[in-house]
Amino acid sequence: MSGELAGVPAAPSGAGWGRGGRLAARRRLADRLATGLSLGATGIVLLALGSILLTLLARGLPGLSAGTLVRVMTPPGGGGGLANAIAGSLVQTGLAAAIGTPVGLLTGIYLSEYATDGRVVAVVRFVSDMMLSAPSILVGLFVYLALVAPVGHFSGLSGAVALAMLFVPVVVRTTEDMLRLVPLTMREAAYALGAPKWRVVLQVCLRAARAGVLTGILLAVARVSGETAPLLFTSLGNMNWSLSLDAPMASLPVAIYQYAGSAYDDWVQLAWTGALLITAGVLVLNVVVRMWHRRLGAGQ
């Protein structure tokens, strides 16, 4: 069997294979070029991340000691630590997560499962997207005008509210996107069993999308835990030990901002140590949640 169709003139010997060969060679070359560029870009990112981590370890570890974790901030040369800044960051970030997680989850569920196309939905999505990319300093200024200026003093509560405003859009976007990825057949199977919609959303959709939703919450925690600009306008910072939400409160990002630009070696060292602590905290939180999620999935 020759493989030629009846009535179709045969191509010159070797011409078709020649064009196919050149085309295949160009495709192989383009594929290798794209693969090489992708590998090069990945290598650049890994190199940059590795360089940042190595720099943090090299500059931050020398200042890490028990005294750094238990002593409060002091004037230069006083042998102070970062205990009040660590506690302040935990309080403000935790309160921001406590405020932002339910608001972001419920908004994402509404946009994905209940909202119909309309002006209100479009406005909610537009505001969420704008907040997602809004400069954090604008959020700080807004909270300053809304909460700090009327009472006449900075406070840890206003810092937590500012961080919560940056927290919510990340959770809204990831929750909505993850819920939309849940297969329609899972919802239909639940409805076929007679389950009401709220039960389908809570026990089927959220259960299937929980890995992505948790990742979104972690991304939000990682983002707000390193924010400095909004805290400068809201909680400001405090050299003393204070966990009162109605008073200025210290935080690691503000301490790093203040110490990194100083002319004192011990303060600069504490700034590097503080940056290392923030990075390690986000990394540990990420690893713990992923291990918990993996163990929970294995137990089912």
TrEMBL record:
Enumerate the transmembrane spans. Answer: 36-61, 81-111, 123-147, 153-172, 208-226, 270-289
Query: Residue ranges of the ABC transmembrane type-1 domain?
Result: 86-289
- The gene designation is pstA
Q: Which Gene3D superfamilies match?
A: MetI-like
Q: Which UniProt keywords apply?
A: Cell membrane, Membrane, Phosphate transport, Transmembrane, Transmembrane helix, Transport
Q: Is the keyword Transport assigned to this protein?
A: yes
How this chain sits in the membrane, per its record, is: Multi-pass membrane protein
State a single Pfam family of this protein: BPD_transp_1
Q: What is this protein called?
A: Phosphate transport system permease protein PstA
List, alphabetically, the InterPro entries matched: MetI-like (IPR000515), MetI-like_sf (IPR035906), Phosphate_PstA (IPR005672), Phosphate_transprt_permease (IPR051408)
Cellular localization per UniProt: Cell inner membrane; Cell membrane
| Family label | Belongs to the binding-protein-dependent transport system permease family. CysTW subfamily.
